[in-house]
Structure prediction request, 163 residues.
Amino acid sequence: MIRFKTISWVALAACTTFGLVGCGNTQGEAASPTEQSMEEGAILAAVQGLFQALEARDANRLSFSLREDALFTRIDVRGDTLMTKSVSCSDFIASVSVEGPPLIERMQDPVVHQSGDFADVWTAYTFHVGEDLSHCGHDAIQLVREDGRWRILGVVYTVDDCQ
Prediction:
């Protein structure tokens, strides 16, 4: 079950990390709880669309979910040395849209922040290759709304052993 949280130390850290000024509504008016829930639902649906396309290894659906200039940054925190690697949207799509077992990513307790047409989602996740648990970690996913549709601008994620 997905639960929405409005503020936490993790959210504060995410806002600070991404340099957001005022992680809430910048229009001067508070959104009603219903409007906020609908926006959070639309943002999470965009992220879930990415995960469903990943599971299906579907290049067309991945392209639909992602901006062409999206960037994926992996931070491997296993072992003694921190390792990072960034890949472009096209390289990411090419690497995962090949035949093989489903790539299944599941969010746990996502936190959504939105300011106008920019949003971010911070969530713990598990990642399975087929039925086998591969790794766990945290996602920091940035989205932009263009033409009324939320699209993924970037994903920074950690890779850790599941313990």
